[in-house]
Amino acid sequence: ENVKMVLFENFDDYGFGDRRAVFAPFLGSGGVVDLQPLFFNLTLDTTMAMLLGKLVYSLRIDNGNEDSNRAFVESFITAQESLVKRFRIAFFYFLYAFLSFRRVCSTTHRFVEDYIHERNLQSSEAGELYGFIDKLAQKCGTTAELRDQLLNVLLAGRDTTACCLSWIVRFLVRHSEVMDRVRTEIVSVLGKMWYLAFIIKESMKIFRLRLYPLVPLNNKTAMRITILPTSSRPNRKSPILVKRGKVVIMSQYEIDELKDIGWAYFPFNGGPRACLGEDFAIMEVLYTIVRLLQSFPLVKLPVGEKNEVVGSEKQRLTLVLSSADGCRVNLGQSIAS
Ligand code: HEM
């Protein structure tokens, strides 16, 4: 319920409710806009609002008129991009953007730490004011630990959900029969929207988020000697021994293609370390699509935009898998205020 409140109340404040302000600067000719970068801003804002109860207004050009918001947003984005590049060059990570990486990390850290101190989150009187964050604060011994936990959830919740939205809207504007059904459902049903919920869950399969899993690679470290029942070698018959401390990299991207594997589809993973934000993400995606289609009922594929066969889209791999061609749509001109 808390999450719902944060999402619903704040959305209209700085999201699609304020759609003239949000979309106007991005609109190209004929009401054409790439929604993908906006979805990244939106999910940064909603996840921050959920975590800290604080708006950073990354979706608004003026950042809510606060320099600290702007600095945080820019630094967080740059830090994350650098992180991915450093991750890719493995042992040589320290060679990439050493000084600038430290600088953006420290701006990002300071922003969250200031908030922790400002709200006195770690004092015993902090109580139950902020729900999630209080519970986390009680578990974390130091400010740095609490800061890192918060940033971890921000990282986990933001890009994944933005990519999910982007792939789904790309799909909807390319499949008018599905889009029409969603529109009809939004108009006719108040309350549970089974069809849209189905699309969101299934898009991860049908629209081949099976093919384009939002988290394409993941890894786990063996805490003890472990035997995996089948190896990844071509015949996949023999077991494989994993020594203690060794890292096993799983590729959801590859596994989805292996028809004979039972647990092949796990966009949120499973077990004790499964995604904590699954419900939040599904609700956020559902809500955003409903609000988008309510605000822009005529949204469609722009003229001249490629309508490629599902499965042949260009992709971009960072920590997540996004559309390399973005999510360009024609909003359909009717930007009523
Ligand atoms: C469509 C959106 C999302 C997808 C596909 C997704 C997927 C995943 C996956 C695959 C993992 C790794 C689990 C593992 O390694 O076992 C994960 C972890 C996690 N996710 Fe999500 N996620 C999404 C949205 C979110 C959101 C919105 C939040 C929070 C607001 C969130 C919070 C987390 C956290 C905290 C973890 C770490 C859990 C742990 O290590 O115990 N996720 N997610």
From TrEMBL:
<dbReference type="GO" id="GO:0016705">
    <property type="term" value="F:oxidoreductase activity, acting on paired donors, with incorporation or reduction of molecular oxygen"/>
</dbReference>
<dbReference type="GO" id="GO:0020037">
    <property type="term" value="F:heme binding"/>
</dbReference>
<feature type="binding site" description="axial binding residue">
    <location>
        <position position="275"/>
    </location>
    <ligand>
        <name>heme</name>
    </ligand>
</feature>
<keyword id="KW-0732">Signal</keyword>
<keyword id="KW-0479">Metal-binding</keyword>
<dbReference type="InterPro" id="IPR001128">
    <property type="entry name" value="Cyt_P450"/>
</dbReference>
<keyword id="KW-0560">Oxidoreductase</keyword>
<dbReference type="InterPro" id="IPR036396">
    <property type="entry name" value="Cyt_P450_sf"/>
</dbReference>
<dbReference type="GO" id="GO:0005506">
    <property type="term" value="F:iron ion binding"/>
</dbReference>
<protein>
    <submittedName>
        <fullName>Cytochrome P450</fullName>
    </submittedName>
</protein>
<keyword id="KW-0408">Iron</keyword>
<comment type="similarity">
    <text>Belongs to the cytochrome P450 family.</text>
</comment>
<keyword id="KW-0349">Heme</keyword>
<dbReference type="InterPro" id="IPR017972">
    <property type="entry name" value="Cyt_P450_CS"/>
</dbReference>
<keyword id="KW-0503">Monooxygenase</keyword>
<dbReference type="InterPro" id="IPR047146">
    <property type="entry name" value="Cyt_P450_E_CYP52_fungi"/>
</dbReference>
<dbReference type="InterPro" id="IPR002401">
    <property type="entry name" value="Cyt_P450_E_grp-I"/>
</dbReference>
<dbReference type="GO" id="GO:0004497">
    <property type="term" value="F:monooxygenase activity"/>
</dbReference>
<dbReference type="Pfam" id="PF00067">
    <property type="entry name" value="p450"/>
</dbReference>
